[in-house]
Design brief:
single chain, 238 residues, alpha/beta, Rossmann fold, seven-stranded mixed β-sheet, 9 helices, 7 strands, 34% helix
Length: 238
């Protein structure tokens, strides 16, 4: 890897840096058609196992790049990719059933502008060139609400430093959750990064109402059915 593509890694001494994946990697058994998607479509659109991740290496030409950390079932990523066909999307998800759902969206909506990584999103994010991403999304991550599990949260200093390094100036980091513990934690973390990001918020309505161009995920819909409040945060890199 050349010096120009050498990524800025999270602080090695930072205990908040996440590398171990927790929880199940697969839920219900896959149907034959789903197995076929994993065996045939996924290898065609997976990112390479090594080397820099750029618009050129992924899509063959320069274009704005988006990066989604833990895309769940892929609804948000697919909707954004359909909305912005000239942009490129990198989606990361460690769980097989979520990956299958994303593959179904990509097949059914004919979305050639998505590349996938089944594994830890931070491993892929490190390989993205600095100052190259237009958007990074972290939507409804596992809240790990117990205090002793706080270091497992993606929203921590190490990952946020990495996100800042990869976003271009003026690029946007979007974060959403329905969990009050995670909201408080995330706001404290982002306050420590005030020199890297501007919070795009003028009043409470700005984080209580979904902004334009923010497609709903199934996790968000489920939260609303349960009567949970959902919060939306947008940060612009300085």
């Amino acid at each position: 890897m050349s010096a120009t593509n050498n990524p800025v890694s999270p602080k090695p001494h930072d205990p908040s840096t996440i590398r171990q994946l927790y929880g199940r990697r697969q839920g219900h058994k896959l149907r034959p058609q789903q197995v076929q998607l994993v065996e045939q479509l996924l290898p065609q659109i997976s990112i390479s196992e090594s080397g820099p991740l750029t618009a050129e290496t992924l899509f063959g030409a320069d274009r704005p790049l988006h990066f989604e950390i833990g895309f769940g079932a892929g609804e948000h990523m697919a909707e954004r990719a359909d909305m912005l066909p000239d942009h490129g999307f990198i989606g990361c998800e460690p769980f097989l059933n979520g990956m299958v759902s994303a593959l179904q969206h990509i097949r059914d909506r004919n979305l050639p502008n998505i590349r996938l990584h089944m594994g830890n999103a931070l491993d892929a994010l490190e390989r993205v060139s600095d100052n190259s991403l237009s958007f990074v999304y972290l939507l409804h991550p596992d809240p790990w609400p117990k205090a002793r599990h706080a270091k497992r949260r993606i929203m921590n200093d190490g990952p946020v430093d990495l996100i800042a390094a990869k976003l271009k100036s003026g690029g946007e980091f979007r974060f959403g959750t329905d969990h009050p513990v995670y909201v408080r934690h995330a706001m404290m973390v982002m306050q420590r990064h005030f020199n890297q990001f501007d919070w795009l918020c003028n009043s409470a309505i700005d984080f209580q109402k979904s902004p334009g161009g923010w497609p709903e995920t199934r996790y968000e819909a489920k939260a609303r059915r349960k009567g949970h409040e959902v919060w939306y945060f947008r940060y612009r890199k300085r």
